[in-house]
Write a structure and sequence with these properties.
By secondary structure, the chain is α/β, with parallel strands linked by helices. It contains eight helices and seven strands.
């Protein structure tokens, strides 16, 4: 069924509109990396569509913070793993803010460790829904608008786990590998339309959902990173900001790993 209209959505501010003259849609932007990306893109001058599935109050808080800083943002509810809600989401964003010029594919779900002995096809599907199905649905929905504009930025949020290949995480690793493959293929296919497609692969960036991480775990991780620390949301947001900018106009099909050198060598 088509997603219901989001009655908790904040209406656009009077005269709103980014200095870039374009709209950035960030999925899964109510907290964590998504919220940081939304704030940075708004600071860059984009009108930001803050997507969320269930955390309405958190998403609205992100919007309020952006507006308090002089930026333009609006919150939009939508399950980005379901075809009808995705179509409705993009329709509402376009009607309210304009066509999407920057698509940041950040939404994710649980990433449990599953031993091979317990690995099921459903475990694979749980990851593929977020990292293959959702990006495909969203790109299809925004593509007509990007083609009409003659330009676009598609930025996937991957993970360095594909290179680290952690035991017990094979379903997640496989889905992230598929996401990278999509990035490279889409970049070649959409380049003639002025659309770039890149992937940002963060290392471990502690955010709200990692609140249970101990000081010992944080220190152990930092000891393996050449730069001596875990990543921050700002590290990832600044990379996304660059890829969304005109300065990155000749970069496409790339995976940019942001993990302090953790996978170097």
């Amino acid at each position: 069924m088509r997603s219901h209209f989001d009655h908790s959505r904040i209406a656009p501010a009077e005269g709103s509109g980014g200095s870039e003259g374009g709209v950035a849609l960030v999925t899964g932007a109510s907290r964590g990396l998504g919220a940081a990306m939304a704030r940075q893109l708004a600071a860059d001058g984009w009108s930001v569509a803050v997507n969320y599935r269930s955390a309405a109050e958190e998403a609205l808080a992100v919007v309020r913070g952006i507006r308090a800083g002089g930026g333009s943002a609006e919150a939009f509810c939508g399950d980005v793993t379901d075809e009808d809600p995705v179509a409705g989401l993009v329709e509402r964003v376009t009607a309210s803010l304009g066509p999407v010029r920057v698509l940041v594919l950040n939404a994710t779900g649980p990433q449990p460790a599953v031993a091979v002995e317990d690995l099921t096809w459903e475990a694979h599907l749980n990851q593929l829904r977020f990292f293959v199905k959702s990006p495909t649905l969203l790109l299809r929905a925004v593509l007509p608008g990007m083609k009409a504009l003659g330009s676009g930025r598609v930025i996937q949020i991957g993970s360095d786990i594909f290179e680290r290949a952690l035991p017990g995480m094979s379903a997640y690793v496989a889905a992230k590998g598929a996401q990278l493959g999509l990035t490279r293929s889409w970049a070649r296919e959409l380049g003639p339309h002025g659309i770039t497609v890149n992937l940002v692969a963060p290392g471990w960036v502690p955010v709200e959902r990692h609140a249970s991480a101990t000081e010992g775990e944080l220190r152990a991780h930092a000891s393996e990173v050449p730069l001596g620390r875990a990543g921050t949301p700002a590290d990832i947001a600044s990379t996304v900001s660059f890829l969304a900018s005109e300065a990155a106009g000749f970069i496409t099909g790339e995976c940019i790993t942001v993990n302090g050198g953790h996978t170097t060598g």
